[in-house]
Amino acid sequence: MAESKAATSAPVADTPDKIRNVVLVGPAGSGKTTLVEALLATAGVIDRMGSIEAGTTTTDYEDVEKRQKRSVSLTVASLEFDGHKINLLDTPGYADFVGDLRAGLRAADAALFVVSASEGVDESTRLVWEECSAVGMPRAVVITNLDRERSDFDAMVAIAQRMFGDGVLPLYLPMAADDGSPAGLMGLLTQTVFDYSSGTRASRQPDDEHLPLIEESRSGLIEGVITESEDETLMDRFLSGEDIDVDTLISDLETAVARGTFYPVLGTALQPTGFGSREVLELIAYGFPSPLEHPLPTVTSVDGDPTEPLLCDPQGPLAAEVVKTASDPYVGRMSVVRVFSGTLSPDTVLHVSGHFLTDRGHQEHDIDERGGAVSAPLGKLMRPISSGMAGDVVAVAKLAHAETGDTLSDKTSPLLMEPWAMPDPLLPMAVKAVSQADDDKLSEGLGRLAAEDPTLRLDNNAETGQMVLWCLGEAHLAVVLERLRSRYGVNVESEPVRIALRETFTTSATGKGRHVKQSGGHGQFAVCDIEVEPLPAGSGFEFVDKVVGGSVPRQFIPSVEKGLVQQFARGLDSGYPLVDLRVTLFDGKAHSVDSSDMAFQHAGGLALRDAAANAKRSLLEPYAAVTILITDEYVGAIMSDLSGRRGRVTGSESVGGGRTKITAEVPELELSRYPIELRSLTHGTATFTREFIGYEPMPAQLAARQLHTQ
Ligand SMILES: Nc1nc2c(ncn2[C@@H]2O[C@H](COP(=O)(O)OP(=O)(O)OP(=O)(O)O)[C@@H](O)[C@H]2O)c(=O)[nH]1
Ligand SMILES: [Mg+2]
């Protein structure tokens, strides 16, 4: 990043109506980070654009981003343009980092869909568009890479119209030089040509040869722009041939964009000149709505009682939300927050509430803590500001407890808001430190990373002895491992996840446990006879005492039960815990001196092992109920894939919008890489959830293999 002097002075807005919060979304590699770079250079925040190739961009500042040449987290860069403070929220396009895309959508008031003229629009991006439609998010489309060979603006506009629907219309048409490189943009509303052939933007009247083209595209555009006009006579006047003045059109454009009925399309060719970026800035400043027009999330008191609805008012009660948490070994914790109401001042005590992420292993928060400096982020660089007002996106230093998704409010009137829907991590990966000496550092580092990232869940599985990281995909895991290495100095390797199986008897059997040691010193004597019978799945362990005549004295019956419980937990030769059995103690022998609690515990365990030798047994494997949401075209493929996984389909219903919900019960063993395989089967368009439902017998052949490999 080549910062200019402007980089060190933070952009400011005096009132919320001068703020624009814009999230950049789109397929991986479509040019979002490069567009942010171009916008920063055009606004004079940086002297010249950095590049992905050289690892010098403002928003891909983390080492892992530079190395992988892609964004892996949400990053904010703010700039000032024509009296507006514009907060650009750069999100990663790759599916594994969708958690940060969601956070970006939450913090923004409008979205730029960045798509490459040489690649097109993928299905996942179309789904994000649909999501934005559902919540009425204002949108525009930026077509990048116009300088590349095989790029075709018109074809890309047609694709965008097909994928995104009506109302997607170009605001400018690109003009090419003789060699095919982009040379200028024809502004359809203003009927002005912005000529870039000299290297900078010069405006001029269109050439006569372009007039028919402008005329042809212009009327459809104006109809799109004025459909939502306050002036109801405007459409009739326009259709009857009246020329509408440009100021009216621009103000109506903002209304139509804000209401989500019209989506302007712009074109850019960013390398090396940033061609088209000034027009993007103008659209953001004059065509996108301010935070005042954005619906605000519902807040309650910390106990969930209703409170006054929020207003985007700097004088109102403070309500802000953490949308990103980052920590740097030198700088410490940094929280990026969207201020919805009130004003966030530096060095003040804030109330931190977070109640909704406990199922992901996050603590409930309800505490006061002092925040540090408030800044306007420029990627990694934090530019201090005097406060963050309602509508702004700012960073707060030093909040040690607040995590992504938590609400910040005034300590005298604590508030709580439910965070946005966060994707569930469904890919389990077991990790261990390469050197055992690093085990402590590993748990500490993982704990911190999981606190920063709500799409990461940590499961220290006592049964299998593995540290399991639940993540969104392999690339997500790779980033976590890299951060562990670079920030905490721990080298980590991953290994396959062990599935916790169970064992049970399939036939009844009796067993005798003799624990008799009577040579020398104090002896030990306990004998017990048991019968073991299988019970239905989910029954666990049942103990029945049928001892008659005191063959096992009363006081030792609980000892036998304890010995059995311990053996159930330890399992037999497979080491898997036993379940779903009734054990009946029906006889035994004791000695007046040598019998003891310990001796009967031992005898109980031995009796169970003896019974096991006389019974048929089977391994049980965990099953999960899986719900998969897919577009209809994949139903056949998903069904046959599920049966390949030994799954039972339990339902399939159309949920509208060309989508189907399939429910199935599938062995967990077959689900360990499902997020990856489902993504490749459906080109990233499916979502699924899973929930443990119980244990079922494992096919004998598989069980034999499992016992062999453990
Ligand atoms: N020629 C040309 N290359 C571009 C343009 N925009 C982006 N690129 C290149 O395209 C590649 C991807 O650009 P990025 O800015 O990293 O794309 P992104 O959308 O941020 O990618 P993710 O963060 O992975 O989602 C880089 O090599 C850029 O230099 C453009 O307009 N013209
Ligand atoms: Mg990027």
Strand order of the largest sheet: 19-18-24-15-16-23-20-21
The proportion of residues forming helix, as a percent range, comes to 25-40%
Bound compounds, each kind once, are: guanosine-5'-triphosphate, magnesium ion
Task: Report the total helices.
Answer: 17
Write the layout of secondary structure elements.
Elements: E1 2-3, H1 5-8, E2 19-25, H2 32-42, E3 46-48, H3 63-68, E4 75-81, E5 84-90, H4 98-107, E6 110-116, H5 123-135, E7 139-144, H6 153-164, E8 168-170, E9 172-176, E10 182-187, E11 192-195, E12 202-204, H7 211-226, H8 234-239, H9 246-258, E13 263-267, H10 277-287, E14 299-301, E15 319-328, E16 332-341, E17 343-344, E18 349-354, E19 365-370, E20 374-378, E21 381-384, E22 388-389, E23 393-397, E24 407-410, E25 415-417, E26 427-433, H11 439-452, E27 457-461, E28 466-471, H12 474-488, E29 492-495, E30 502-505, E31 509-517, E32 524-534, E33 541-545, H13 557-570, E34 581-589, H14 597-614, E35 617-631, H15 635-644, E36 648-656, E37 659-667, H16 674-682, E38 687-697, H17 700-709
Parallel strand pairs: 2-5, 2-6, 6-7, 7-13, 8-13, 33-34
Antiparallel strand pairs: 1-3, 4-5, 9-10, 10-11, 11-12, 14-25, 15-16, 15-24, 16-23, 17-22, 18-19, 18-24, 20-21, 20-23, 26-28, 26-29, 27-28, 30-35, 31-32, 32-34, 35-37, 35-38, 36-37
The chain binds guanosine-5'-triphosphate and magnesium ion (MG).
